[in-house]
Amino acid sequence: MTIDKRRLAQNFSRAASHYRQHAALQQAVCERLLERLDLFRLQPTRILDLGCGTGFAWKGLRRHYPRADIIGLDLAHGMLRESRRGRWWRRERLICADAERLPLVSGAVDLVFSSLMLQWCAPPDRALAESLRVLKPGGLLLASSLGPDTLKELRAAWAASAGSAGSPPQGMGQSLPFVDLHDFGDALIRAGFSAPVVDVEHITLTYPHAPAILRDLHDLGTGDARVERERGLIGPGRMRAFARAYEQWRRPDGTLPATYEVVYAHAFGPRPDTRPQDGSTVAAFPFSALRGRRGIPS
Fold first, then answer.
1. Of 23, 89, 91, 196, whose Cβ has the fewest other Cβ atoms within 10 Å?
2. Omega into 123 within 30° of 0, i.e. cis?
3. Half-sphere exposure of 208 (CA within 13 A, CB side)
4. Which of helix, strand or coil describes residue 195?
5. Which CATH number does 5-148+176-204+261-290 carry?
6. Residue 277 contacts by C-beta under 8 Å, 6 or more apart in sequence?
7. Calpha distance 196→141 (Å, rounded)
8. What span, in angstroms and rounded, lies between the C-alpha atoms of 54 and 155?
9. Would strands 135-146 and 109-115 be described as parallel, antiparallel, or unpaired?
10. Helices of type H across 37-180
11. Rounded to whole angstroms, how far apart are CA atoms 55 and 99?
């Protein structure tokens, strides 16, 4: 599968002006990721916010590291333009570029922070390798991505409606090849990171009906950006069949769920004498297992 980067940037740029109104999940995951900075003793002088979008992370990064320089990088120029309207944009340097081809010198930053961007790099190996390259030795990568249970109800309902007329809606007929936590950890090791740790969380958003889920995804700019995407309009019969199929997940409170599997990861840029050897492993466990350990808040 190949991502059409130009189309991806266009999708998000078109959504930029109203992105914050629909990005409840993105904001929540960003806040959870920022909370994890408390686990590390860092004093970064330069931070790369990789896939910064409209700048959700900047307030929290400033709170943790008021003296650090922040570089906001995103593929979508419209997102960067919108970020300048935010109250937390101050002196952040903004770069419109591809995460798989970072226009930064090696060893340029102490922290790479990336919230819900890496799922758009399929697979994430090249973006992770570039993140490692721009990290100083011993620097930290703190990231979140989406796992394979993401939108499982939607994908099942669309598959169940396959007998009806019409073509798949953008991004719904075939999903991105979401990487699970084990494969994500393996990708970190392949990239050359040291001491990777990954864990997973499931978050459920609720909606009044199935079309509202599709509208929300469209308004977020998450249309199909695959080169191999299917073209065509959605027939009304297919949409009705999709909505009927989704009803099997109707909850007692009258809402429909949309599940997201969020994969969290951190890893370090190895120092010259600590490059991982063959046979390295990745620690994978629930984040709750960390709480109560010495130095980690309960």
1. 91
2. yes
3. 2
4. strand
5. 3.40.50.150
6. none
7. 9
8. 28
9. parallel
10. 58-64, 77-83, 125-134, 152-160
11. 16
**Is the CB of residue 198 less than 8 Å from the CB of residue 142?**
no
Q: Is 96 helix (H, G, I), strand (E, B) or coil?
A: strand
> Which residue type, as a one-letter code, is found at position 221?
G
User: What tokens appear for 57 in the block?
Assistant: 């992370």
Measured between alpha carbons, how far is 83 from 78 in angstroms, rounded to an integer? 9
Angle, helices 210-219/236-246, rounded to nearest 10 degrees: 110
| Token reading at 37 | 């900075």
Exposed/middle/buried for residue 236 (C-beta within 10 Å: 0-12, 13-18, 19+)? exposed
Identify residue 251 by its one-letter amino acid code. R
> CA triplet 213, 168, 206: central angle to 5 degrees?
15
Cα–Cα distance, 83 to 52 (Å, whole number) = 9
Q: For the chain, how are helix, strand and coil distributed in percent, rounded to 5?
A: 35, 20, 40
Backbone angles phi, psi at 48, to 5 degrees: -105, 115
Nearest Cα neighbor of 238 from 127, 181, 160 is: 160
C-beta separation of 94 from 83 below 8 A: yes
Of 41, 44, 93, the C-alpha closest to 66 is: 44
Supply 158's token pair: 């669309």
Distance CA 298, CA 292 (A): 5
What's the pLDDT tens digit per position in 132-182? Answer: 999 999 999 999 999 999 999 999 998 898 764 444 454 443 457 799 999
pTM beyond 0.90, yes or no: no
* pLDDT on residue 165: 43
Dihedral pair phi/psi, residue 153, rounded to 5°: -65, -45
Q: Which token pair is 180?
A: 């699970």
Q: Can you tell me the distance from the alpha carbon of 126 to that of 128, in angstroms, rounded to the nearest whole number?
A: 5
